[in-house]
Design brief:
mainly alpha, elongated, 2 strands, two-stranded antiparallel ribbon, about 80 residues
């Protein structure tokens, strides 16, 4: 899967953008920042008006950040 350059804000990409922003806000409130979060969509040919899906790409993170994420998720499950 490759990011589509200049993807128009269709309902699927807007849904993914909203999800990315909500996740970034929640992570910030938990004291966690991922270095790169973006949206990925499949290449759309000229016949398709809208991408069939869009994904929130979380990028990579360091081991300490991964541990923080695990701790926050575990506390949410048990808390």
């Amino acid at each position: 899967m490759t990011p589509t350059p200049h993807t128009p804000h269709t309902s699927k990409t807007q849904e993914a953008l909203d999800a990315r922003d909500a996740l970034a806000t929640a992570l910030t409130q938990a004291g966690i920042q991922l270095p790169a979060m973006d949206i990925r969509t499949p290449w759309v040919d000229d016949r398709e008006v809208e991408a069939p899906y869009a994904l929130v790409h979380l990028g990579v993170c360091s081991a300490p950040v991964a541990h923080l994420l695990a701790d926050v998720i575990t506390k949410g499950i048990t808390g």
